[in-house]
Design goal:
The complex is a heterodimer of chains A (about 375) and B (about 300). Helices cover about 70% and strands about 5% of the residues of chain A. Chain A has about 375 residues and is mainly α. Chain A folds into two domains: about 1-45 and about 180-370, no CATH class; about 50-170, 3-Layer(aba) Sandwich (abc type-2 transporter like fold), CATH 3.40.1710. Chain B has helices spanning about 40-50, 70-75, 95-100, 110-120, 135-150, 165-180, 195-200, 220-225, 245, 275-280, 295-305, and strands spanning about 1-15, 15-25, 30-35, 55-60, 65, 80, 155-160, 185-190, 205-210, 210-215, 230-235, 250-260, 260-265, 285-295. In chain B, the strands form three sheets. Chain B has a six-stranded mixed β-sheet with strand order 6-7-8-3-9-10, sandwiched between helices. In chain B, β7 (about 155-160), α6 and β8 (about 185-190) form a beta-alpha-beta unit. In chain B, α5 (about 135-150) packs parallel to α6. The radius of gyration of chain B is 22 Å and the shape is globular. Classes of the chains: A mainly alpha (about 375), B alpha/beta (about 300).
């Protein structure tokens, strides 16, 4: 009963701490909005086919090749790729270098020579894929022609429907987060970890406020006080995360996938980890050092966890540090859960969070029992 | 009957002995003054009584029960008014009192009744819904007391409950202490204000270097120092005083200057007033008054410990 009374009192007290509540609610929402909006382009890897302009110098003599090429050109032209014949003395390579075209292709009876733009890498890669695909099919059709002309026509005609060349050279997976989706996830996990800051004050605050003396003089065990405070802190911080997730889902239309229950469960274990970590640090370090240690760890964990920018392509030392960030574990698991429906991805992270939290809580409980005062 | 009994109590911090083989008893229904300068061992003793610190050696009994073996019973019967305000500023006066009373097992209607009773007792009944941050220093001190009495403890320990407050609030608190005592509570009272202790305490102990050096009623303590007398000399130009020269006069135990008054403690049997006056005249100090003081607690404390209570 004492545990519940202490938890309820702590919960009420936290609800009245407007500054902390504002930080826990407004900070992630503003970050999602600002970073999600400002970095929209960084997350937009798709390329409109309308943007692609191919300069072509066609000197092939083979009527068959000309016929197949015209069919190919017509087919992908429907997708918005613009063909420009290279007239007379036009230097195709220079024109691409000058960013007038996405790519330059020279076609003769020996094959296709392709020069892609280094400024429009994605577009030129797509065009290269299309031309490679066309070349493969033409070679196949040419081989088939020697034995069965009908088969050759079928190969080309069958594959010449609009989009088939493009589909084969697709560079972009079907489901990937947009910037708002990404920042909704990473800011939510970041703010879940911020719970460690307030948790570090759970016992320290009582000592500073001098109420620790009253608590110690009352007929309640230290562990009851400890348990009540951990329960309240975990719940209030988790409630903040719930609000942030639901706000981002319904106001910003962030994608949280089809397994919201598992998302919340993982975030709950992360809050528990943060609360126990904050308490642990408060007992490990001297009072003045606690805030500094906490701030440094939270900021590094946030940065390496991808809270400010994606860290997918990290390598070397950076990757090593990123891998020990609890935020990185949570973010990766949530990405897999939301975008690959991979329910299995969240269980190891939930287990790890809970195990580390249990270790910290046990450490704090034992240390509290040993100490004379709080 | 003794409410509190302390036997051979010792507390050490490493090599430092904070409380040294202390023996003390507080009778039921008395207001017991516990005097000592800073670092004398008062707070350490109080913290051991309230179970905040572990006992190194010896024993403390409350209502005949050992505070270590019957920890819950003894805690239920003690109320603590700490020297520092121990309240939650972001919670209302009612919530503060109710929370702490709840820790003593009070629930439901009884909790509500006792909370309101405690707030009324300290004169904060009409401020129950207000936050302590809007309170004056005196009101906060009174709330600090309310948090300690709602569970009706048999012994209340008040550690400097009137520090830094206005005279009106101080009077209110002193009257509250007397009222609590009349209602059957025993009180241990510490203060730096000797006049408060003289006014309300029935028995007093003086602690120095972790030991009780004197204990008894006010009269008993004052009788300890019948061999000394105190002379107060009012002066107009205190800057001309040579305190060291005054200390050299035969029979003078101590000399201190408080504002425009020189307070000289001397051996009772020696008449040295003439020598003192001559020295002041030599130094061209203008004398405005001369008073022979009856011994008071301040003199007793100074004589026994060699320092002022506020040192």
């Amino acid at each position: 009963m004492n545990v519940l009374n202490i938890a309820l009192f702590e919960f009420k007290k936290d609800l009245r701490d407007k500054r902390t509540l504002l930080l826990m609610l407004a900070f992630p929402i503003v970050l999602i909005l600002i970073l999600g909006t400002a970095l929209t382009n960084a997350f937009n890897n798709g390329v409109e086919l309308d943007d692609m302009n191919l300069l072509v110098k066609n000197t092939a003599q083979s009527a068959q090749l000309q016929s197949y090429w015209n069919g190919f050109a017509q087919s992908i032209g429907k997708e918005g790729v613009e063909f420009t014949p290279a007239e007379g003395g036009v230097d195709g390579k220079k024109a691409v270098q000058d960013n007038k075209y996405t790519a330059y292709a020279e076609i003769d009876d020996n094959g296709i020579h392709f020069y892609g733009s280094s400024r429009q890498t994605i577009s030129s890669n797509i065009l290269q894929g299309m031309l490679t695909s066309f070349a493969d099919k033409y070679n196949l059709a040419a081989a088939a022609l020697k034995n069965s002309p009908e088969a050759a026509d079928a190969i080309i005609a069958g594959e010449a429907s609009a989009g088939s060349f493009i589909q084969e050279s697709s560079l972009i997976p079907d489901r990937k987060p947009g910037s708002i989706d990404y920042y909704a996830i990473v800011e939510s996990t970041m703010i879940a970890f911020y719970a460690c800051m307030s948790a570090s004050w759970l016992i320290r605050g009582e000592v500073k406020r001098k109420t620790a003396l009253r608590l110690a003089a009352a007929p309640v065990g230290k562990l009851e006080i400890f348990a009540g405070k951990v329960i309240a802190s975990t719940l209030i911080n988790f409630l903040c995360i719930l609000v942030v997730v639901l706000f981002s889902k319904y106001v910003f239309n962030a994608n949280w996938g089809n397994h919201l229950g598992s998302v919340f469960l993982l975030l709950f274990t992360e809050v528990l980890l943060a609360v126990s970590f904050g308490l642990g640090i408060a007992f490990l370090f001297k009072d003045d050092a606690v805030n500094a240690v906490m701030m440094i760890f939270v900021q590094l964990a946030s940065m390496f966890g991808g809270a400010y920018f994606p860290v997918d392509e990290a390598s070397g030392v950076f990757a090593g540090i990123a891998n020990v960030s609890p935020l990185r574990w949570a973010n990766e698991a949530l990405m897999k859960l939301i975008y690959n429906d991979d329910l299995q991805a969240v269980f190891p992270v939930m287990g790890l969070n809970t195990a580390i939290a249990a270790a910290f809580l046990a450490f704090v409980a034992i240390t509290m029992r040993k100490r004379e005062a709080f | 009957m003794n409410v509190l009994e302390i036997r051979n109590l010792t507390k050490t911090f490493g090599d430092f002995i904070a409380v040294d083989n202390m023996n003390l008893s507080v009778n039921e229904g008395e207001i017991f003054g516990f005097l000592g300068a800073n670092g004398a061992g008062k707070s350490t003793t109080i913290n051991m009584i309230s179970s905040l610190l572990r006992i190194t050696k010896g024993e403390i009994k409350l209502l005949g029960k050992d505070i270590v073996k019957d920890n819950k019973f003894t805690k239920m019967n003690i109320g603590i008014v700490p020297q520092d305000l121990a309240i939650y500023e972001e919670m209302t006066a009612y919530e503060n009192v109710s929370f702490f009373a709840g820790l003593y097992g009070l629930r439901g209607a009884l909790l509500k009744e006792r909370t309101e009773e405690a707030l009324e007792f300290v004169g904060l009944g009409d401020k129950r819904k207000a936050l302590p941050k809007s309170f004056s220093g005196g009101m906060k001190r009174r709330l600090n007391i309310a948090c300690a009495i709602a569970h009706h403890p048999k012994l209340i320990i008040m550690d400097e409950p009137t520090v830094g407050i206005d005279p009106q609030s101080r009077n209110y608190i002193l009257n509250s202490v007397k009222k609590l005592n009349q209602m059957g509570c025993s009180v241990i009272y510490t203060s730096h204000y000797m006049e408060e202790v003289e006014e309300i305490c029935t028995r007093i102990a003086i602690v120095d270097h972790g030991k009780i050096i004197a204990e008894g009623t006010k009269e008993q303590l004052k009788s300890i120092i019948t061999d000394t007398k105190e002379t107060w000399i009012g002066v107009k130009n205190a800057e001309r005083l040579d305190l060291n020269a005054l200390k050299q006069i035969s029979g003078v135990n101590s000399v201190r200057l408080e504002e425009q008054t020189v307070k000289i403690v001397s051996k009772g049997e020696i008449n040295n007033l003439n020598g003192v006056i001559q020295l002041l005249i030599r130094d061209q100090v203008e004398i405005s008054s001369v008073e022979e003081q009856a011994p008071n607690l301040e003199t007793v404390f100074l004589t026994l410990t060699g320092r002022n209570l506020r040192d």
